[in-house]
């Protein structure tokens, strides 16, 4: 059975994001996958990258460098418990699903903090092991999110620009950098401004897509996909 | 005298980011500007968008919607104290400088949390008052940051793509959306991999730029600037 980690960032279980998460757990479990959820708000996940992420002495206590310190701590098993826990989940997963409402053309800070703190050097990448040779290769990722703006606003030539423009930092800058292959994003546009009926259709469409997810080919994560 | 708010996100005062912040405070003060710094890590700024940001009763306690609740709370003066404090600083500022190390093609989570929580509807935008008619028009913003990757990696055709690609969500999606005009970014590439001498030159170049900053024209914040 395949293993899936859903990293989920919404405060309200009754939200559409909450329902999308639930649908994914149900559908993937039905397929025989083993599904783990990191419910970031419920966990009160810490987004701030600080000295607290390193247990014990620092490599250089004169001048704190987060990247160097977490790299060194990772190598000696000295990262804080919450990070080790998340890294274990990532390590075991074949697929990472990120489920969130788009905040300011990006993920909410609590999820950005997950990226900042979990994907440390040594674990997810280690120069020159990045991009196609990143340490998390052979894994898949999928960004599933809701927007405030409409599909028209996020069209090419629309006021907010092609939605793909804002996927570049998340899909290429983070996932591809770590060697993870990226499936097409799953986007629910402006659920707050549509009928209950339409929102139900959004949930059905997501369940439907998940049925054949494992047959999908990753996108070609190059500038052409994003900016052409 | 003009007013400047520096939103600063680095854990270590001795870092290059710390020095860049100090240089800006010194140079702008010398010019007669009044400079305020929000030192996010020192403030232990909360990045998580939660129910705690609303004082008193919720507008809809059945189903928590962060965007709606903070909008309503803003209108009745019911946002948490730390947000009111930051909004006051933004309101008074002519120029916002964001000083940070690039984390995963974006700002550190603690700074993303500042965007998520401070720039609430009603204060920074209120549909259809967004983009050129955003509520923070007549203000300027400048993103000043350091990178891990080299200038070559962030060149057009480089493995990390043109650095402008990753500026889209921050400059257009956040600042332009709120009506803020954006000055050209100030980027120090890979300071950890250059000599102490070169790092000193980076500080001098920043101080130099600040001397004539008020004569600069904002960039043309359209897809052409980012993706051409």
Automatic annotation (TrEMBL), chains A, B:
Domain Flavodoxin-like fold: 3-210
Keywords: Cytoplasm, FAD, Flavoprotein, Metal-binding, Oxidoreductase, Phosphoprotein, Zinc
Cofactor(s) needed: FAD; Zn(2+)
Catalyzed reactions per annotation: 1-(beta-D-ribofuranosyl)-1,4-dihydronicotinamide + a quinone + H(+) = beta-nicotinamide D-riboside + a quinol
GO molecular function: dihydronicotinamide riboside quinone reductase activity; metal ion binding; NAD(P)H dehydrogenase (quinone) activity
CC terms in the record's Gene Ontology section: cytosol
Family recorded in the similarity comment: Belongs to the NAD(P)H dehydrogenase (quinone) family.
Record function comment: The enzyme apparently serves as a quinone reductase in connection with conjugation reactions of hydroquinones involved in detoxification pathways as well as in biosynthetic processes such as the vitamin K-dependent gamma-carboxylation of glutamate residues in prothrombin synthesis.
Protein name: Ribosyldihydronicotinamide dehydrogenase [quinone]
Taxonomic placement: Eukaryota, Metazoa, Chordata, Craniata, Vertebrata
Gene that encodes the chain: Nqo2
């Amino acid at each position: 059975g395949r293993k899936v980690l859903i990293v989920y960032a919404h405060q309200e279980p009754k939200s559409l994001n909450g329902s999308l998460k639930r649908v994914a757990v149900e559908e993937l479990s039905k397929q025989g996958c083993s599904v783990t959820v990191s419910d970031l708000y419920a966990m009160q996940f810490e987004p701030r990258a600080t000295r607290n992420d390193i247990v014990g002495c620092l490599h250089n206590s004169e001048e704190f460098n987060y990247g160097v310190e977490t790299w060194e701590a990772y190598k000696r098993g000295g990262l804080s418990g919450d990070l080790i826990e998340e890294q274990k989940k990532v390590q075991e997963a074949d697929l990472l699903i990120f489920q969130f409402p788009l905040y300011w053309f990006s993920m909410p800070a609590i999820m950005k903090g997950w990226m900042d703190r979990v994907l440390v050097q040594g674990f997810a990448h280690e120069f020159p092991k990045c991009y196609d040779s990143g340490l998390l290769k052979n894994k898949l990722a999928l960004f599933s999110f809701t927007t405030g703006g409409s599909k028209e606003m996020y069209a090419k030539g629309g006021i907010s620009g092609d939605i793909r423009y804002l996927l570049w930092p998340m899909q290429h800058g983070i996932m591809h950098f770590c060697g993870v292959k990226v499936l097409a994003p799953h986007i629910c546009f402006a659920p707050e401004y549509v009928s209950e009926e339409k929102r139900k259709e959004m949930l059905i469409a997501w369940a439907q897509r998940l049925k054949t997810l494992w047959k999908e080919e990753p996108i070609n994560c190059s500038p052409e996909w994003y900016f052409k």
